[in-house]
Amino acid sequence: MNALELLLNRRSVSRLVTPAPAGNELQHILAAGMRAPDHGALRPWHFVVMQGEGIDKFSQLLEKSAIEGNLGSEVAEKAKNAPYRAPMIITVIAKVVEHPKVPAWEQVVAAGCAVQAMQMAAVAQGFGGIWRSGSWTDDPIVRSGLGCEENDKIVGFLYLGTPELKAPTKVSTPDLTNFVSYF
Ligand SMILES: Cc1cc2nc3c(=O)[nH]c(=O)nc-3n(C[C@H](O)[C@H](O)[C@H](O)COP(=O)(O)O)c2cc1C
């Protein structure tokens, strides 16, 4: 699959099973994230790779946040189970710093580009993934459990693994009419 085919046909995959990327595969994914466009070469991101016990700990964090937020047992159960939807999750945290030329929003966008780059690097190697977020990204228990500092912003949880179903739905050619103008 060449780069253009990947970009035009990529799909997110929510049903992910083992194997997760490992060894060089994972290194390529992380290196692709590090190559995200980055104004000022700040590298304003941090990647937290979770699998196995890491996913168990993440599950406990989500459950705790639901319980302490009094969200009810059904939500707590759902939160507890959510991380097990993939064998690997990479949490991407934007590490936002004060900078005279690079405002906070640019740093958050750069971290978002890192998520997309990692997802595409996973797909290019035969894996699948989905970028998820939810209210957990701003939850104090989740943030502190994942080592966030005050100005950090969790931009997403990248769920990765092997697509359970072999043929993801095909994408149709997009109608650009309302999305593009030429000046
Ligand atoms: C910042 C961000 C957060 C997202 N959060 C979620 C989420 O929490 N749950 C979800 O199902 N999809 C979420 N998505 C959308 C999926 O990643 C995916 O793009 C969507 O399911 C459409 O599938 P496609 O990528 O194959 O078009 C998010 C996307 C972005 C960019």
Layout of strands and helices, then pairs:
Layout: H1 3-9, E1 16-17, H2 23-34, E2 45-50, H3 53-68, H4 73-81, E3 88-95, H5 104-124, E4 128-132, H6 140-145, E5 152-163
Antiparallel strand pairs: 1-5, 2-3, 3-5, 4-5
Bound molecules: flavin mononucleotide.
Residues 11-12, 130-134, 156 line the site of flavin mononucleotide.
Cofactor: FMN
Binding site for FMN: 10-12, 35, 39, 131-133
InterPro entries: NAD(P)H_nitroreductase, Nitroreductase, Nitroreductase-like, YdjA-like
Structure notes:
- By secondary structure, this protein is of the alpha+beta class.
- It has a single domain, classed as NADH Oxidase (3-Layer(aba) Sandwich).
- The protein is 39% helix and 18% strand.
- Strands 1, 2, 3, 4 and 5 form a five-stranded antiparallel β-sheet that branches.
- The model has no long low-confidence stretch (mean pLDDT 96).
- Bound molecules: flavin mononucleotide.
CATH architecture label: 3-Layer(aba) Sandwich
CATH homologous superfamily classification: NADH Oxidase
Q: Indicate the CATH topology.
A: NADH Oxidase
Mean pLDDT over the residues: 96
Largest sheet: 5 strands, antiparallel
Broad shape = globular
Low-confidence residue ranges: none
Number of DSSP-assigned strands: 5
Task: Output the helix-strand order.
Answer: HEHEHHEHEHE
Strand content: 15-25%
Number of helices: 6
Tell me the radius of gyration.
17 Å
CATH class: Alpha Beta
